[in-house]
Design brief:
Blueprint (H helix, E strand, L loop, with lengths): L1 E5 L4 E4 H16 L7 H8 L3 H12 L3 H16 L7 H7 L5 H12 L3 H15 L1
Antiparallel strand pairs: 1-2
Protein name: AraC family transcriptional regulator
GO molecular function: DNA-binding transcription factor activity; sequence-specific DNA binding
Keywords: DNA-binding, Transcription, Transcription regulation
Length: about 130
């Protein structure tokens, strides 16, 4: 049994493959701090790594790495609303291996550093009081 996931390009994946790809997304979203390789993730969900990478991109329009990065940045933004949390603590709680990598990734996505973002959020909070 095969399921079509993108009509215009007629890309087909079996129901099992589709289920595995969706499970991989759930595994990543459930714990953004884990550092699973694509190969280990593929093994965990029961699909080969090529089909996982290819299928994930076709199904969700982004790579596994970009999905993980966006999930981590989204969580970091939530945590940075707390003005007492240090940036390095936020980095570790979001699964970044070191604070410099976190700052670089955050700035690339948000166009400002995590510290600047945190300061802006605190200033917005003060204006609302």
């Amino acid at each position: 049994m095969y399921c079509m996931i993108m009509e215009e390009k007629k890309l087909y994946f079996s129901a099992h493959e589709l289920k595995c790809i969706k499970k991989a997304k759930s595994v990543i979203a459930a714990d953004i701090t884990q550092h699973l390789s694509i190969e280990k993730l593929a093994l965990h969900v029961g699909i080969n790594s090529y089909k996982l990478k290819y299928g994930f991109r076709k199904l969700y329009g982004t790579s596994i790495y970009q999905f993980l990065l966006q999930s981590r940045i989204k969580q970091a933004k939530r945590l940075l609303h707390n003005p007492t949390l240090q940036v390095k603590v936020v980095a570790m709680q979001c699964g970044f291996k070191n604070v410099q990598h976190f700052i670089t990734c955050f700035k690339k996505v948000e166009k400002i550093t995590p510290g600047q973002f945190q300061k802006k959020q605190f200033e917005k909070f003060l204006k609302c009081k």
